[in-house]
TrEMBL record:
Main localization, broad class: membrane
Subcellular localization, as worded in the UniProt entry: Membrane
Record-linked InterPro entries: Na-dicarboxylate_symporter, Na:dicarbo_symporter_sf
Transmembrane regions: 12-37, 43-67, 79-100, 130-150, 162-186, 206-232, 279-307, 313-333
Bilayer topology annotation: Multi-pass membrane protein
UniProt KW keywords: Membrane, Transmembrane, Transmembrane helix, Transport
Annotated Pfam families: SDF (PF00375)
Species classification: Bacteria, Bacillati, Bacillota, Bacilli, Lactobacillales
Organism: Carnobacterium antarcticum
The protein's name: Dicarboxylate/amino acid:cation symporter
Top-level taxon of origin: Bacteria
Length: 409
């Protein structure tokens, strides 16, 4: 048997712990900590460079794919998945803005912001992005919609494949450079936070946000199954019980794609017909992100409150709507959701490569597996609803048409 590799979450937790210890070692000269800070700074510069490219890689193909495909089922499934994602984001914002201020108060914000300044990197390498974020967003929407239109005219396959392969390149860079580099990035940042004296104040908030997010995800999934059960006239509690293997598998793998085989078996147990489950479950693994958006919006609201930054609904609403599209093309690897969300953090006033952006990434990744589990659980609720729609409105209608044609003949 081969050696079992350490997963991303244990690596991140280890990086946080070691970073805190490293920053607290008073016998170390400052330049030793600055080495770690320098590595984090270089990684941050690279992240700034790749963010506009991530927007193009994810959003162009995401929009082109969303608008493609024939049949009412695709449209209805996409509408339900996107609506679920939006509602999850808005609900998370509502809960976070009312619950989090109970343990993130003005005294805590003052303590975080009043901490001593951290150490500066030993050197920096200027690496300017090829495009700014706004230009990348406009470019992506323009090309995504245009490619979708061209494909409807039986054209544009070359452009579609060009951006599809560009998406693969960005995904490969994320999986081989960015994701593996995150523990080192987080280590350097937490070493600096520990050196500055603000880390323990921040961690006192993290675990409460973590618990709140998981509670919100479980509540959202339970409500989704109740709605699906009532609509399809199935026992919601049986549906939830059947989902347990899929939920546990998702926690272990941290991947929606890797959970598809188990989720298909769950859908079969729920009585979903083969043609519907084989269509909805793989599609839902890509476009339905209920758990991920609950996590991201909760974490974003938490860090905005911690640093006493604006967090009005109008600002968050645009961010939620954008994430619903951007995360569709997120890589299926652990952390894919937050990686696709990083480019749009500027919409809510967060620098994705700064201290606040780093805190957000860390908070998200430490519970990414639970977000994935909520995502794929919601997929089976959608499958139950779509199966009912298919048999009630589409299959019966086709049968009626066939009968009327036979009678006329």
């Amino acid at each position: 048997m081969g050696k079992k590799k350490l997963g991303l979450v244990p690596k991140l937790l280890l990086a946080i712990i070691l970073g805190i210890i490293f920053g607290q070692l008073s016998m170390l000269p400052d330049f030793v900590i600055q080495i770690a800070v320098t590595i984090s700074s270089l990684f941050s510069n690279f992240l700034s460079f790749i963010i506009p490219l991530m927007i193009i890689g994810f959003v162009v193909i995401g929009i082109a794919d969303l608008a493609q495909g024939a049949g009412k089922l695709l449209g209805v499934t996409t509408l339900i998945a996107y609506s679920s994602t939006l509602l999850g984001g808005f609900a998370a914002y509502f809960v976070a803005t009312h619950l989090f201020p109970l343990f993130i108060n003005s005294d805590l914000s003052t303590a975080i912001q009043g901490s001593a300044p951290g150490l500066e990197p030993l050197f920096t390498i200027p690496l300017e992005p090829m495009l700014d974020v706004t230009s990348a967003i406009v470019f992506s929407f323009m090309f995504g919609i245009s490619i979708s239109w061209m494909r409807s005219q039986n054209k544009g396959e070359t452009m579609y494949h060009l951006f599809g392969e560009f998406n693969l390149i960005i995904t490969k860079v994320l999986s081989t450079v960015v994701i593996p580099g995150l523990p080192f990035y987080i280590f350097g940042n937490f070493a600096n936070l520990s050196y500055a004296g603000s880390v323990f104040t921040i961690l006192s908030v993290f675990w409460k946000v973590f618990a709140s997010v998981i509670a919100m995800q479980l509540t959202a999934v339970a409500l989704f199954f109740i709605i699906a059960g009532l609509y399809a006239k199935k026992n919601p509690f049986t549906l939830m019980k059947n989902q347990v293997p899929g939920y546990v598998t998702a926690i272990g793998t941290q991947s929606s794609a890797a959970t598809i085989p188990v989720n298909l078996e769950v859908a079969k147990k729920n009585g979903v017909s083969a043609q519907i489950r084989e269509f909805v479950i793989p599609l839902g693994a890509t476009i339905h992100l209920l758990g991920s958006i609950i996590t991201i919006i909760s974490c974003v609201t938490a860090v905005l409150l911690m640093y006493d930054l604006p967090h009005q609904f109008g600002m968050i609403a645009g961010f939620v709507a954008m994430l619903g599209i951007a995360m569709v093309a997120a890589p299926g690897a652990p952390g894919g959701g937050i990686m696709s969300a990083l480019p749009f953090l500027t919409m809510v006033g967060i620098d994705p490569t700064g201290t606040i952006g780093n805190l957000l990434v860390t908070l998200y990744l430490t519970q990414d597996s639970f977000g994935t589990a909520a995502n794929i659980s919601g997929d089976n609720a959608i499958a139950v609803i779509i199966d009912k729609i298919y048999h009630k409105y589409i299959l019966q209608k086709n049968d009626s048409v066939s009968v009327s044609v036979e009678n006329e003949s």
